[in-house]
Automatic annotation (TrEMBL):
Protein name: Tyrosinase copper-binding domain-containing protein
Domain Tyrosinase copper-binding as annotated: residue spans: 324-335
Keyword Transmembrane in record: no
Pfam families assigned: Tyrosinase (PF00264)
InterPro entries on file: Di-copper_centre_dom_sf, Tyrosinase/Hemocyanin, Tyrosinase_Cu-bd
Species in which this protein is naturally found: Chaetomidium leptoderma
Amino acid sequence: MRGIQSVVSLSLLLGAWAGPVEKNWQSKAPRNPAYPLDVVDKLEESIMPNVEAWMAKRAGNTNNCTLENAAIRREWSDLSADERKEYIRAVLCLQSTPAKAPKDKVPGALSRFDDFVATHMTQAGTLHSPNNLFAAHRYFIHVYEKALREECGYKGYQPYMNYDRYVDDPINSPMFDGSDTSMGGNGAKSDYPGIAQPFPRPYNLLPSAGGGGCVTEGPFKDMVVSLGPKSTIVRNIPANPRADGLGSNPRCLRRDVNKFSAAGARANYTYSAIMDNPDIDAFYNRYLGMPQLKGDVHPWGIHNAGHYIIGGDPGGDFYCSPGDPAFYFHHGMLDRVWWIWQMQDPENRAHAVPGAAAMTMPGHGGMSSSAMKAMFETVDVDNNNKKTRRADIHDAVVDLGWTAPGVKLMDLNEQLGGLGGELCYIYV
Ligand SMILES: *[C@@H]1O[C@H](CO)[C@@H](O)[C@H](O)[C@H]1NC(C)=O
Ligand SMILES: *[C@@H]1O[C@H](CO)[C@@H](O)[C@H](O)[C@H]1NC(C)=O
Ligand SMILES: [Cu+2]
């Protein structure tokens, strides 16, 4: 007995001696050895001491959220095949669970999955004003993840897409190779025109990568897209029966898995956005690709670059983009990038909100920049399209209609402990 005990304590001692003790979150989130850590992954690892110090500083104020009990959001190809299938099952489940959105307002919502799409459409101003873009999307992903877990029995957390892993060949990547462990394949060849971009020639167009038609392979090949289109540029899609795009318009999922777009989301872009922009507005603008960096030949900004890795319909539609299930992987990555940026200097950055010098999100999906700007003039819009001008940022409410209760914008900044502890997750 005694002998065994001392062997155990000796090996513990040796373990501690032999090198850094593996942290709880690392052992719970193994990485896929096929993908060596990129510069952003390394940056993420390097923030953990800051995160620990920030948690210690906020002790008693993190609503019982700790690094030990925090959820872990992982990269898609770090998940095992079974874990990916389980995630896919949950998304398909959400797509076959009845909608909660009122039928008179959103006759086109076929499922709980569509409730989120409809919310992104009706709350577009709230979700995309400079004040709200980061925080409201953090909340949006959180409530989607919650629906997967609580309504569809999913035990994991929302995965993200590290674009850099797939830049060279997104079509054959674990995200989009069309296998049963992917998020569905590319779209068929079509007359997809590419996507206009707010940059001088020749960067004013993100060219088609050859797809744009219906997705024919993988778990979402039979998916029915119903809401929209509202701002898409994809040709030959029937118009929605309602001007607001909320009517029923059943059609296939269309994609143009696009390596040109992906090139604007290489890790060096993400790294530079985080490290070269200590100011929140500069970071925000860079994230949106504005203004174009001198000589940059992939100037889309990681936000648009990530969206147009799939583009298509509804993925390329400003309003309806969450109708492609890959949306949540992309915005998960963006949320991760925001967190890594925040944790460079939590004291000054954790509660910084873009605004004063933030540029308006460039028009996309066929929308002009002036139309975008008009949408953001009054920032809080409820489900009945009632607009409230906001005086103080601390009063700002993010209202996600029938998908989630309205919450204070400033309660969404702390990923570890925000919303009374409801937000409690890290990225690995
Ligand atoms: C934190 O945990 C303690 C002990 O379980 C509990 O009494 C308290 O209500 C919790 N606080 C919050 C904000 O959840
Ligand atoms: C990232 O690297 C690519 C080459 O792989 C280069 O063209 C681009 O300018 C770099 N971008 C930044 C922001 O460093
Ligand atoms: Cu959005």
